[in-house]
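Field reference: "sequence" (input) and "structure" (output). Example, Glutathione S-transferase:
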Amino acid sequence: MPSYRLHYFPESGNSYKLALMLTLCGETFEPVWTDFGGGVTRTAEWRRSVNEMGEIPVLEVDGVKMTQTAPLLLKLADQYGRFGAETEDEKFELLRWLFWDNHKLTGYMATYRFMRAFTEKNDPQVLKHFRRRLEDFLGILDGHVQHNAFAIGAKPTVADISMMAYLHYPSDEHGFDFATSHPAIHAWLGRMAALPGWKPAYELLPGKRMTNYAK
């Protein structure tokens, strides 16, 4: 069986996606806490020795460093035969929601949450713009999971793992009360949390936490 080392920091929803996928597939990993808040990923040495793209997470598979969460989720789904698609139509739908999440939902939520909760000073107009965009994306997702148990139908896939990662963090970080504002998302998050072996990010990803400035 492969051995895994995951370079991460606890607040990283993208790190959580890989940690959760491995856990749901019955695998363990060696956690490698990374001082993202201290700027280590922006140093030339880290980019030379860990990830030239300057991003977290990094998954080491038998000592080989691999990056970019979406293709890694797809690779793990193929490897373990879990949380993937079975038909060509399902494969298309999985990719459609996975790419939508990466470009829209995760892309905006990761930035909005970081600025809102982990930066001491931020521009209210920028936050307002991101919030307005997120309301649109969350409305799309809420409408979809009103009529679908999971992203592409009755079974969870890596698209669900990708979309739920940043949404499951505490509301004082992302600023949304989904039970009130988006009840279908709230119910879908509950279905994800009911999967055997599911654990929240701050349980799967230990280590020093960044200061939370959200009010």
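The beta strands are 4-8, 30-33, 58-61, 64-67.
The two ends are 45 Å apart (CA to CA).
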